Amino acid sequence: MSLNATPRSNRLHIGIFGKRNSGKSSLINAITGHKTAIVSELAGTTTDPVYKSMEIYGLGPCVLIDTAGFDDEGEIGALRVEKTREAVDKTDIALVVMDSAKDTDSVKEWLNIFLKEKKIPTILVLNKADLLTDVEETRNLLEKAVGLKPIVVSAKDRTGIEEIRGAIIRHLPEDYDAQTITSGLVQEGDLVLLVMPQDIQAPKGRLILPQVQTTRELLDKKCVVISVTTDKLDDALKALARPPQVIITDSQAFRTVYEKKPAESKLTSFSILYAGYKGDLDYYLKSVRAIDGLTEDSRVLIAEACTHAPLTEDIGREKIPNLLRKKIGEKLKIEVVSGTDFPKDLTPYDLIIQCGACMFNRKYVLSRIAKAKEQKVPMTNYGVVLAYLVGILDKISFN
Fold it and tell me: Given the DSSP bridges, would you call strands 224-228 and 122-126 parallel, antiparallel or unpaired?
């Protein structure tokens, strides 16, 4: 196992859950082959969830999530359990760890959350087999109590670990890794022009993550890829022997690029591609129409994945709010949250606008959308909103 450069947001997220002192951290260390997590005989050693990016043989790039015990107690314990619940929203596959067949009620409650509410593939693990006097009897009692046959392991002796790895492979979601950024948009040999204004938010000397990931995917698909900044778009088009099949731009440059693009070239943006790659594009397209019903008494929530210090011309904090207020009125109420801050109660809002979410995994973005749908709140994303506000949403290619 080794670290690699695959972004955390693109990795399979494996959550390790269980009661305090059931051996969750020891199990992670056994799976990774490293002292990844702190191990202690004291209950409650793990506080906030710990996210460890690894590459595991047979699985590829993964993120292992070590969580606090879901039986934690007291005021601080309740906060830890809440963080564990938040980690569930990012989990693609759950490992539920037990060290006996006792006290199964809380485990059954969490299994109900994983299997029924969240529909997360779940593997039950009976740990500390080295301490059990009758492993088979304990295994049978546990299966009868919670309805899942556990895999028996000893994190201390590192027995049963390969069986866990095999079970994870068998439990991979059917659609996992099926989604691609440019799914259905390009084919081998296509000429693709990337228009990439260098936003002041971008780290100096580097491209932002969606630009990097999209470029890599296009190269993997054997496309001919050309990149320019917005001010060099005219020069690039003149230099080409044929019009590009596809032009992908930053959403902020939609209007400029649309007015200059060849008629036969498809146009889309990084953010719109990520709307389908990370989220629910159909719901985003349906929800953006809610803008027409907004008034100055309405409330809009803008959700950023990044936790950067806002600068002038920030797309989420300045450009989109300015465009919305120009259309709706200056008194329109707009709130911004960043990172994993996301209100549980969404009903006060008339519209939620999510960024491209390149820093989140798809499972987490879909969990946000599910909450919005459940509370009947429209939710869309930056690229869809910008295309709609400049009047070219019906001219954009989505796949």
Answer: unpaired
pLDDT band of 149, cuts 50, 70, 90: very high
Provide DSSP, 144-179. Answer: HHHSSPPEE-BTTTTBSHHHHHHHHHHT--TTTTT-
Q: Structure tokens of 314?
A: 């920030």
Percent of the chain with pLDDT over 90: 63
Distance CA 374, CA 365 (A): 14
- Residue 295 belongs to domain with CATH number: 3.40.50.11410
Strands 60-66 and 50-56: antiparallel
**181-219 pLDDT, tens digit each:** 998 899 999 999 999 987 655 566 778 889 999 999 999
d(CA 87, CA 81): 10
Interacting residues of 325 by C-beta distance below 8 A, sequence separation 6+? 332, 334
Residues 251 and 285 both lie in one domain:
no
Determine contact, residues 356/275, Cβ cutoff 8 Å.
Answer: yes
Tokens of 188: 């081998």
Residue 190 sits at the vertex; the CA angle it makes with 189 and 192, to the nearest 5 degrees, is 135
Cβ neighbours of 99 (radius 10 Å): 20
Going by the DSSP 8-state scheme, the letter that residue 114 receives in this structure is I
Q: Mind listing the pLDDT tens digit for each residue in 31-46?
A: 887 665 544 454 444 4
Whether 346 maps to a domain, the answer reads: yes
